């Protein structure tokens, strides 16, 4: 819960103040340090352990770290130059952070993001000055920066439900991808990865006991090294395997835990399971009731705080759950994100099935199969896009190009691990983690996802793939590791996953806001979408081939978030919006 | 007759050489020239069977859809009503007005109209499909010649034994469930519409289709001791036998102790498919495991193919069937296995409407 911003060049001296003020909810104080030709600003909360207390300024050197390293370092900014200069330390670098270092001697700016992408960094060059910032809206505070929507990035959003890759939906602004260090020197930008997952199967881990021992040890350590000295932490407990596992390891670390779980009334999927786990581990559990009407009142603020459009409806409930945790007096919260990506859940089985039948009726590339798994508008472009929008999205291929480096990676030889690489790098690092950070940061809550731990992730790529997907049993080794500590029905039951009743919401309590955002007048003004298809969805109908009703809600929410985002970030230039109500 | 391209209605004398006088587009069919249907009927059948272009379909699905629409077109209620009304009117006139010249002509005329009406009704209520396959194939060839192959038609590509460049580990895993069909073309319908992908599902035919990955998939199925097995079939004797065959045959699930859920068509589902049935094998009906005597009687007279249901309905009803059993433990506790016959096709219309809701337990995506 903090943010940085900076520039290289002859910028307006007041620009950093404006860039930090744009994210005032990310801290209660700011620190700005400027030297000739460069400046770095830092927005932070007072008295948070494991965080820098200001911009590190020594001679011509400026450094700032938003977030923290894992294990904890008391003043991350002061050690940043040493880390960047030491390959061995970079090889172990972990945590949730976005950091920047201005080396005045060499007139070199280095900036980097954590390995999995919890914290974000964007950059833009404007009027001869190079700027970077934690959030997009900070860059929009640069005086005179042109703000124009990028149709190609919007097209990608409509496929993935988030914006993948370096481009963002505003022309000219780019995002540094996770696990990379960028260097700006002599007017040139060089980007180098410092973290790459590679499959190195260890045959010894085919032995269950050995594999379980490894996962238990690394799981415990992943949690422990993310405890920054808080006496009490929160836990978002869904009742599924992953968050239950984090609960086990938190209890083993001896910290007080208060758990929060979402309550969708009679549409809750795992409410009882969360209680079973909390009872078993002796954790205090609070339910956070969420209904469609709650989302109506927060929608515009949510979209503004998310910064980029995220089309998964889980963001609203997560935002409300983070608010509840903050209101309960907590400053740090853990969750179980990452279990699917590391240990073989989510896309593994559908992709195996799709791959075995691929080519039966013509060419189906692996990338095309994978793109379908996002279930938004891939293949529906002709139904949804207006001719004018279709003409702007460019030639086919960029979406598949995002996937090819993972789905055919030379860093893995097994099918399962190639799919894992894609899941971690795209859905994990560019969707789940940044949106998780945003929905918590906006309440001043520091969120930690210990399953996205560097050592644990690297170890997961030494496991024989069959220890992850064992027959049809997903996350097998994780289940074996946790079965001793959790009720059997929690560990071995079939996965249900977070299921937000978004279709009922968008067709019910959210119908009013959707009329505003996706009604004929709004669609005509924006000119992106054909009103016929959107009207069909809003009437509760999808195409005949869609067998799941939930897709109606998922698709409408994706469109509604995009329109809200366009109003806030394109029309409103990133300024805080008013409520829709 | 309307042109399917420009929608212009034209008279027979205006459309020389089967060409639309407005846009010069060719007609595939000419009812005045002996064709039983119009281009518009065929196009509507394609749109209906493909869910307006969103569902992949087989030619067999189109055959039944054309029949369904042709049946409607050939059975105008007004025509039946006319015959009955005319017969009653003549009788009524003869009885009430008692015309001076009442004679046998009145009686004969009324009776003739009544017989014609009854004949028309009996023809309409004939359970068997009326347009034979040879006629349909002739129309289908003509349609493709004039209008091309419609969007969504399933066309198979040859599949290698097991792709050589596929990672070796892909065969080490398994599926949550398997749908076993009595026909390869049902497999085509499900796979072409991504049912396997959406439901973590293997889809195979009992005669070994798709041949390329069949062995690999069968080996994968055996890796899941809690595999949910569903069968989907025509209302035929082999189809209704299929579930029992699978739990006994060691090449399939014999000895695995699994409960197989039969979601296929049975004689009791035949009512909504009136006019779309095929002739049965005309053999002596015999009660057997999985087939009651009443079913055997029906199955000896008729056959009902799954393709007679619209693809949209097949997909939605199968999905609803899978979801209804999502939380079931398929293990029977012994090696003999068991069959549960469920009614995926027990209610609702099969040609139109929504059908098949969404059950719980959907974890993916």
Your description of this structure?
The complex is a heterodimer of chains A (581) and B (365). Chain A is built from 25 helices and 17 strands. By secondary structure, chain A is an alpha+beta fold. Chain A has a domain at 3-193: Aminohydrolase, N-terminal nucleophile (Ntn) domain (Glutamine Phosphoribosylpyrophosphate, subunit 1, domain 1, 4-Layer Sandwich), CATH 3.60.20.10. In chain A, the strands form three sheets. In chain A, strands 2-3-1-9-8-10 form a six-stranded antiparallel sheet. Chain A has a six-stranded antiparallel sheet with strand order 4-5-6-7-11-12. Chain A has a five-stranded parallel sheet with strand order 15-14-13-16-17. In chain A, helix 6 (208-224) packs across helix 7, helix 6 runs antiparallel to helix 18 (454-460) and helix 7 packs parallel to helix 8. The radius of gyration of chain A is 23 Å and the shape is globular. Chain A starts with a strand and ends in a 10-residue tail after the last helix. Chain B is α/β, with parallel strands linked by helices and 365 residues long. Chain B folds into two domains: 1-155, no CATH class; 168-341, Dna Topoisomerase Vi A Subunit, Chain: A, domain 2, CATH 3.40.1360. In chain B, 39% of the residues lie in helices and 7% in strands. Chain B has helices at 39-49, 59-74, 77-97, 104-124, 133-147, 184-192, 195-198, 211-221, 237-248, 293-301, 311-324, and strands at 177-181, 201-205, 228-232, 259-262, 278-279, 302-303, 338-341. In chain B, helix 1 crosses helix 2 and helix 3 packs antiparallel against helix 4. Chain B is flat, with a radius of gyration of 25 Å. The chains are: A alpha+beta (581), B alpha/beta (365).
């Amino acid at each position: 819960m903090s943010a940085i911003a900076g520039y290289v060049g002859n910028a307006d001296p007041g620009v950093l103040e404006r860039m930090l003020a744009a994210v005032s909810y990310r801290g209660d104080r700011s620190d700005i340090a400027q030297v000739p030709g460069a400046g770095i600003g830092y927005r932070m909360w007072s008295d948070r352990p494991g965080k820098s207390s200001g911009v590190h300024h020594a001679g011509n050197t400026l450094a700032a770290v938003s977030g923290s390293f894992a294990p904890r370092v008391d003043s991350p900014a002061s050690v940043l130059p040493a880390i960047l200069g030491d390959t061995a330390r970079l090889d172990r670098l972990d945590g949730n952070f976005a950091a920047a270092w201005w080396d005045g001697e060499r007139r070199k700016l280095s900036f980097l993001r954590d390995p999995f992408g919890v914290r974000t960094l964007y950059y833009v060059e404007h009027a001869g000055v190079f700027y970077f910032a934690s959030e997009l809206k900070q860059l929009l505070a640069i005086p005179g920066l042109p703000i124009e929507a990028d149709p190609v990035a919007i097209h990608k959003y409509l496929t993935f439900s988030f914006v993948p890759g370096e481009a963002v939906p505003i022309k000219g602004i780019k995002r540094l991808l996770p696990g990379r260090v960028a260097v700006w020197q002599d007017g040139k930008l060089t980007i180098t990865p410092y973290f790459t997952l590679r499959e190195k199967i260890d045959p010894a881990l085919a032995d269950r006991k050995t594999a379980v021992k490894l996962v238990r040890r690394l799981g415990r350590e992943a949690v422990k090294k993310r405890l920054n000295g808080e006496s009490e932490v929160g836990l978002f407990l869904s009742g599924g395997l992953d968050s239950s596992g984090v609960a086990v390891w938190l209890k083993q670390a001896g910290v007080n835990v208060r758990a929060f779980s979402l309550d969708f009334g009679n549409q809750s999927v795992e409410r009882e399971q969360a209680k079973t786990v909390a009872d078993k581990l002796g954790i205090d559990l609070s339910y956070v009731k969420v209904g469609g009407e709650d989302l109506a009142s927060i929608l515009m603020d949510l979209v503004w705080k998310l910064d980029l459009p995220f089309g998964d409806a889980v963001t609203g409930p997560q935002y409300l759950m983070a608010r509840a945790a903050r209101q309960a007096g907590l400053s740090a919260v853990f969750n179980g994100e990452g279990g699917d990506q590391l240990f073989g859940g989510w896309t593994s089985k559908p992709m195996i099935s799709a791959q075995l039948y691929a080519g039966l009726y013509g060419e189906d590339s692996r990338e095309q199969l994978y793109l379908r798994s996002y279930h938004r508008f891939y293949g529906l472009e002709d139904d949804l896009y207006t001719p004018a929008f279709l003409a702007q999205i460019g030639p086919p291929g960029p979406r598949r190009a995002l996937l090819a480096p993972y789905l055919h990676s030379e860093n893995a030889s097994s099918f399962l691990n190639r799919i894992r690489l894609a899941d971690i790098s795209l859905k994990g690092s560019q969707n789940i983690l940044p949106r998780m950070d945003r929905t918590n940061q906006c309440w001043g809550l520091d969120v930690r996802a210990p399953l996205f731990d560097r050592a644990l992730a690297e170890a997961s790529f030494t496991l024989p793939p069959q220890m992850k997907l064992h027959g049809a049993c997903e996350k097998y080794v994780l289940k074996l590791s946790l079965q001793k500590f959790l009720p059997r029905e929690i560990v071995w039951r079939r996965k249900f996953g977070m299921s937000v009743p978004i279709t009922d919401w968008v067709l019910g309590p959210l119908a009013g806001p959707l009329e505003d955002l996706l009604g004929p007048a709004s669609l005509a003004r924006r000119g992106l979408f054909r009103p016929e298809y959107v009207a069909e969805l809003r009437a509760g109908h999808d195409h005949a081939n869609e067998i799941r009703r939930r897709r109606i809600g998922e698709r409408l929410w994706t469109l509604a978030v995009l329109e809200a985002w366009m109003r806030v970030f394109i029309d409103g230039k990133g300024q805080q919006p008013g409520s829709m109500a | 007759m309307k042109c399917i391209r420009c929608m212009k209605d034209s008279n027979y004398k205006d459309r020389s050489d089967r060409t639309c006088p407005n846009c010069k587009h060719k007609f595939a069919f000419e009812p005045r020239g002996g064709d039983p249907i119009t281009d518009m009927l065929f196009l509507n059948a394609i749109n209906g069977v493909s869910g307006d272009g969103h569902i992949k379909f087989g030619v067999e699905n189109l055959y039944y859809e054309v029949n369904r629409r042709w049946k409607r077109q050939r059975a105008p209620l007004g025509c039946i009503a006319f015959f009955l009304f005319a017969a009653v009117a003549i009788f009524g006139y003869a009885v009430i007005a008692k015309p001076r010249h009442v004679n046998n002509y009145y009686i004969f005329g009324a009776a003739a109209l009544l017989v014609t009406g009854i004949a028309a009704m009996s023809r309409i209520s004939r359970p068997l499909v009326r347009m034979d396959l040879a006629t349909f194939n002739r129309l289908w060839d003509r349609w493709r010649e004039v209008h091309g192959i419609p969007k969504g038609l399933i066309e198979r590509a040859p599949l290698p034994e097991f792709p050589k460049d596929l990672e070796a580990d892909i065969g080490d895993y398994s599926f949550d469930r398997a749908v076993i069909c009595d026909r390869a073309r049902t497999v085509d319908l499900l796979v072409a519409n991504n049912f396997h992908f959406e439901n973590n599902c293997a889809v195979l035919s009992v005669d070994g289709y798709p041949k390329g990955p069949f062995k690999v998939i069968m080996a994968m199925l055996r890796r899941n001791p809690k595999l949910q097995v569903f069968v989907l079939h025509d209302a035929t004797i082999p189809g209704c036998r299929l579930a029992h065959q699978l739990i006994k045959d060691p090449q399939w699930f014999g000895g695995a102790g699994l409960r197989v859920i039969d979601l296929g068509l049975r004689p009791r589902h035949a009512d909504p498919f009136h006019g779309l049935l095929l002739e049965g094998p005309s053999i002596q009906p015999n009660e057997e495991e999985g087939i009651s005597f009443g079913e055997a009687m029906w199955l000896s007279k008729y056959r009902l193919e799954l393709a007679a249901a619209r693809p949209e309905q097949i997909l939605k009803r199968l999905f609803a069937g899978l979801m209804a059993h999502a939380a079931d433990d398929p293990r029977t506790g012994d090696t003999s296995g068991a069959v549960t016959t469920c009614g995926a096709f027990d209610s609702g219309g099969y040609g139109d409407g929504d059908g098949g809701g969404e059950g719980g337990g959907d974890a993916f995506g």
